[in-house]
Amino acid sequence: MTNRRQQQGFTLIELMLVMAILGLIASSVMLTLPGSNRQQNSAQDSAITLQQQLQYAREYAMVRQQPLALAFNDNGYEFLVWQEESWQSFNTRGLKPQQTEWPLSWQLLNQDMAELAQNEELNDGVFGSGDDSEQDDESEIKRPDVLILPSGEMTAFTLKIENANDIAAERWVKTENSWQLIVLNEAPEQ
């Protein structure tokens, strides 16, 4: 006869192993959450969010072969889509409008649509002012600040994100070329 002992429950080693794994998961989650000093990191967070949204918008424009744009306003920015011969607000997953709260402010330092605007086909549509008389008096004409073409190319721009409480927390989002976006801690050379 064999003496078989039936196991009922978990051993101490198994419980310790599970607790160690849960501890590692909890610490990794805590490291990825924003810090408690939200005001200091908010310019950096906003710059990275914009950078990631622009990367996604480029991919979206390439996959769907549809021009997109980014328009800045006093309270943040929104994405636009070229539909029905005009720029329309675009609110899809991943490209939702972003609102700026005090102490943050946005300042578009420069933009360069000149290279892309040389294309005569685009001048009549995407870059053209259109016939404003056909617009309703109540409707607001949307004008893009940054254009994202279906080829994935993007117009050049430099954006400064200021934090009124901490000047050292300023960030700049800049296009290196029509493909690369960078976030800088210091003002870029002009």
How would you characterize the overall build of this protein?
This protein has 190 residues and is α+β, with helices and mostly antiparallel strands. It has a domain at 40-123 and 139-182: minor pseudopilin epsh fold (3-Layer(bab) Sandwich). 30% of the residues lie in helices and 26% in strands. It contains 4 helices and 9 strands, in the order ααβββββααββββ. Strands 1, 2, 3, 4 and 6 form a 5-stranded antiparallel β-sheet that branches. Strands 5-7-8-9 form a 4-stranded antiparallel β-sheet. The N and C termini lie far apart (88 Å).
How would you summarize the topology of this molecule?
Layout: H1 12-32, H2 38-64, E1 68-73, E2 76-83, E3 86-90, E4 98-99, E5 104-112, H3 114-117, H4 120-124, E6 146-148, E7 156-163, E8 171-175, E9 181-184
Antiparallel strand pairs: 1-2, 1-6, 2-3, 2-4, 5-7, 7-8, 8-9
